[in-house]
Specification:
By secondary structure, the protein is an alpha/beta fold. The chain folds into 3 domains: 5-86, Winged helix-like DNA-binding domain superfamily/Winged helix DNA-binding domain (Arc Repressor Mutant, subunit A, Orthogonal Bundle); 91-163 and 267-306, 3-Layer(aba) Sandwich (D-Maltodextrin-Binding Protein, domain 2), CATH 3.40.190.10; 165-265, Periplasmic binding protein-like II (D-Maltodextrin-Binding Protein, domain 2), CATH 3.40.190. 44% of the residues lie in helices and 22% in strands. The protein has helices spanning 5-17, 20-27, 31-42, 61-87, 107-117, 130-138, 182-188, 199-211, 224-232, 246-251, 280-300, and strands spanning 50-53, 56-59, 92-100, 120-128, 144-147, 156-170, 191-194, 218-221, 238-241, 255-256, 264-273. The strands form 3 sheets. Strands 3, 4, 5, 6, 9, 10 and 11 form a 7-stranded mixed beta sheet that branches. A two-stranded antiparallel sheet has the order 1-2. Strands 7-8 form a two-stranded parallel sheet. Helix 1 crosses helix 2 and helix 5 crosses helix 11 (280-300). The mean pLDDT is 87.
Amino acid sequence: MDYTLHQLRVFLKITELQSITKASEELCLTQPAVSIQLKKFQEQFSIPLTEVVGRQLYVTDFGKEIAVAAERILEQVEAINYKTMAYKNQLAGRLKISSASTGKYVMPYFLSGFMNKHRGVDLIMDVTNKSFVVKSLEANETDFALVSVIPENLDLYNIELMQNKLFLVGSPNLDGSQTKSKKKMFSEYPLLFRELGSATRNAMESFINHKKITTLKKNVHTSNEATKQAVIAGIGYSIMPLIGIKNELKNGDLAIIPWKGLPIISYWNLIWLKSKRLSPVAEAFLDYLRLEKDKIKNEVFEWSEKY
């Protein structure tokens, strides 16, 4: 056997995604390069690792066992690297964070100083909707989660980072959006919602129901960016987090529409299970946040205070 660590990583990604095309995208390699590495890896085994049925690639039972072994090998190599750095008195290890999708506008700024200081730390950040964030935390698949609404059914610790404000927004090109009644507005254009499980959608629906507003129809988008682009294009209106529309407000692509009861205000919190045994990296990150979070909030997000 003469396989390389690179081949192990490529094969593991193929088994994970069951697609050479998707694996090449994740690994930032060309599709032919991934195919060549798979071919060279397969040549070292007399039993097929994968098979193609129709146009779909499948991993054989033998391939699945090799993938498990490959994962263990790569984890051991990673552990060796971390131990080497530890002997050099450098903080090393993985930091796993799961973030609600709008949190992508927040979390990087609270991470950058820590990551730049500790080059031996590898960051894994999964950005998804709130329901999946909570599930990953509950399943102990992540160190921390960033949410704007703290789940009540879990025993958690939290650090409050900053405010999260939600405003009604629309395209300035929609006639009369600043002067028409909301009933008139929503009879002409739909409200654009996030997907089920989104904290933004939950807050928006609660507010709309409280106002007893009926809408023309409900358009659903599965990301904040998709919703934002649809509003800019003039498809309809939405209630959106201020944190994600800074540039669009500045450039005049979006306008905040005053409405009594808005903004809806919640708070971004980093949360973790009280039962979680935190790694040295996770503990160091908490120490960093406690010292630096107010400074980061004041320097980076001061602009949001005027709204």
